[in-house]
Amino acid sequence: MTRQTREYWRPAAAGRSISSREGKKAMAEVLLTADAARSLVDSVDAFLFDCDGVIWKGDELIEGVPETLELLRKMGKKIVFVTNNSRKSRKQYSKKFKALGLDVTEEEIFTSSFAAAMFLKLNNFSPEKKVYVVGEDGILEELKLAGFECFGGPEDGKKNIMLEANFYFDHDKSVGAVIVGLDQYFNYYKMQYASLCIRENPGCLFIATNRDPTGHMTPAQEWPGAGTMVAAVSCSVQKEPIVVGKPSSFLMDFLLKSYNLETSRMCMVGDRLDTDILFGQNTGCKTLLVMSGVTTLPELQSASNTVHPDLYTNSVYDLVHLLES
Ligand SMILES: [Mg+2]
């Protein structure tokens, strides 16, 4: 596959240390103990939490989350939520946190939908151009808040294609970017629309919110993640997307603008090795894997696994048990 050749965002070199994956020594992760938990909280000023599989599963809060957040806040730690799930905007996520009884402000939430809008802003995306969205309301809302004209999303989920002789599919030539994220309304119409824009509109950007293969969209089971929709479009256009969510360190730039912190004084807490833990490592954070989401202990300890967090434990609630023991 060919890569997009134009240079867009690159991690800021100065002001923070970014440890490369190659630079990270292959080492076995350590089970979180009382001593390790105390040493962790002493060595960091901020905790970055993934949401799905760490804070909640679908719409169900994971046990002990309120107590854990309360304890860390009491200890003076900053709390930030970094999620790859693009279905909601920061405003919508803040409502979800409130509905689950957690007091979290929009400023504490960094989503891949927000990252996609900020990517366009940072790269001076022309206001004359439009954005086509394969995804849900979260992306559309963040794009509109950032002042961009966009269309697609759930609305196009109702559209069908009949593959008949002489059928010609028209598309808007003023689309300058296609954003692909998790989309429960994904269909053949959207695949074709996105493909035509990327293939035929000169300079059209192909942006992926994230490439998670699966996720706990409901508490009962795993579902195909945004990566499956991205792969479909990527295969059609034979091009790799620009990824703005985890494990890309793009979101960290916005985080660092909001909080005056060193990445070495942050801990990324997540349930996915290939997104959360890699994001933490790519940006120089300490990393804690929790087993309350998609990763199992056999997967973590498998010989084929190449991503090793600094620490691992069952769930965030263990921090409370261990710190108060
Ligand atoms: Mg997760």
Question: Any key phrases for this structure?
Answer:
single chain; alpha/beta; Rossmann fold; 5-stranded parallel beta sheet; elongated; disordered N terminus; binds magnesium ion
Question: Would you write up a description of this structure?
Answer:
- This protein has 325 residues and is an alpha/beta fold.
- The protein has two domains: 30-84 and 247-323, Rossmann fold, CATH 3.40.50.1000; 114-243, HAD superfamily/HAD-like (Rossmann fold, 3-Layer(aba) Sandwich), CATH 3.40.50.
- Helix content is 33%, strand content 19%.
- The strands form four sheets. The chain has a seven-stranded parallel sheet with strand order 1-16-15-14-2-5-6, with helices on both faces. A five-stranded parallel sheet has the order 8-7-9-10-13, sandwiched between helices. It has a two-stranded antiparallel ribbon with strand order 3-4.
- Helix 10 (297-301) links the parallel strand 15 (286-290) and strand 16.
- The radius of gyration is 20 Å and the shape is elongated.
- The relative contact order is 0.19.
- It binds magnesium ion.
- Residues 50, 52-54, 270-272, 293 line the site of magnesium ion.
Short recap of the structure:
This protein is of the alpha/beta class and about 325 residues long. It folds into two domains: about 30-85 and about 245-325, 3-Layer(aba) Sandwich (Rossmann fold), CATH 3.40.50.1000; about 115-245, 3-Layer(aba) Sandwich (Rossmann fold), CATH 3.40.50.1000. Helices cover about 35% and strands about 20% of the residues.
